[in-house]
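Q: Here's a chain of 302 amino acids. Please give me its 3D structure as tokens.
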Amino acid sequence: METSSFSRFVLSLGITAAILPACSAFPTTTVTPRSVPHIARRTASTALLYVVGGGVYIISYPKGQLIGTITNIRDPQGACSDKNGNVFITAYITENVLEYAHGGTTPIAKLEDFGYYPLGCAVDPTTGNLAVANQAGMGGAGGNVAIYTNAKGKPTYYNTYNSAWCAYDQHGDLFVVSTGGSLSEMPAGSKSFIPISLSVSGQGIQWDGQYLALVNPSSKVVYRVAISGSSGTVVATVKFSGLIQSLGYDFLLIGKSIVMPFALKQFYFLKIGVWDYPHGGNVEKTIHPSGGGNYYSLTLSV
């Protein structure tokens, strides 16, 4: 790995490289279904937690048993899934997004994001479109968001700056947070982002069914934010206690639980915690994907 993966979530990198076409992409490459091995027959009816950190760890949920790993992705960063259980993993160095069937370890499709460095991703529950947050472009270009219609083919790019994490609400409104913590929204049907003024900042975002949830890793809180027009208001602050140095930069909301990496010392995110949501408090359960490694993104496939 040329650069520490986690450091890209902390600092915006000035990337110097040969200038390549900014918005070029290649058609989806599909692998024949018979080449998709499933880790185990039981995964067909098992919820699987995909944890990204160096490799990709596939874990049964809620039991927390390691089912398998994906190790041949160069610098995996973000993870998201669709209603069919398909999982998308962004690959920072190779500038693409790999799609896996539920329980599969060989990609069934590859979406090119040529010329950009992808981090987080999200799937629109109303359309099936895939949004990918590009932190930056080669040659020092600013970031953007690539949207793939029906999670296929060539993307359409929408300008944002240093995009890091993204999330859709149930109406198809897309929210994006930058590496610096600024928030923007592209309402459903719109073709541009509007900045959202907010008194707090954070990193990973998810829609909790009523509010936008935004994690502030160093403050060890998740803000529940009501969005109205171009402004956001914090309606509640979920606090996490115990021996935690920092929370992760990405998280999941599963039923009445919030699942996210946490660090016992700065920047070493070696555990996945499960807390009550939206009450927070002490960790209720700890999941250990492997013997070590930094964990910084995750998604649930069902």
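Q: Can you summarize the key feature?
A: Residues 1-43 have pLDDT under 50 and may be disordered.
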